[in-house]
Amino acid sequence: MLTLYSYWRSSAAYRVRIALNLKGLEHDIVAVNLVKGEQAGDDYRALNPQGLVPLLVDGDTRLSQSMAIIEYLEEVHPHPRLLPADLAERARVRAMAGLIAADIHPLNNLRVLKYLKRELGQTDDAINSWYRHWITQGFTALEQLADATGPYLCGDVVTLADVFLVPQMANARRYDTDLTPFPRLVAADAAARALEPFAAAAPERQPDAG
User: Fold this and answer.
1) What would the pLDDT profile of 118-166 be if each residue is shown by its tens digit?
2) Which of 80, 95, 125 is the last residue of a domain?
3) Claim to verify: residue 76 and residue 115 sit in the same structural domain
4) Domain span at 76
5) At which of 80, 106, 139 does a domain end?
6) Mean pLDDT across the stretch 78-83?
7) For residue 83, with 0-12 CB atoms within 10 Å meaning exposed, 13-18 middle and 19 or more buried, which class applies?
8) For residue 111, which phi and psi values (nearest 5 degrees)?
9) Triad 206, 12, 129: Cα angle to 5°
10) Contact 16, 54 (CB under 8 A)
11) pTM reported for the whole predicted model
């Protein structure tokens, strides 16, 4: 049995929940409350020295970082595919997922927002503006990269790019980001969220939601 250490509102954990569901992999979820600081406790640090979620445990294997976890799942459980067989298309999908994972998400991570508030003394309005700025900048590029034929981000098949898009769109809505300039992203997000593997992974459906 796979065990996923998760927090309901973590977009990185959300990605892994989607991937597990898409591949039909049974798993237990252990909640780690980031707001209460449970990720910094000795017990969790012993499992994941970085003190972040998600963490996937597969027997004796412990894996952190959502991209690494999902690529591991893709290699161990290759069907259904999240990465295309064509090498150029595979690289394209990885690039789109990476745009979110490397260029948007790290700047809006909870620990970054806390640092802006506590150490740098920024107001909530300033922090929210910061959050929306980086989403808007990343989404502006992603909108141009999206496949116009749809319904998903890279065409007619769900890929790793959709797994990363949906949680980031949830973050964008949570922070009242104007999504009007991104019709392709909005359409791809809606199409993916209509699928049960995505819906079941949604933050509000997690046991620790609240």
Assistant:
1) 999 999 999 999 999 999 999 999 999 999 888 999 999 999 999 999 9
2) 80
3) no
4) 2-80
5) 80
6) 97
7) buried
8) -70, -30
9) 100
10) yes
11) 0.96
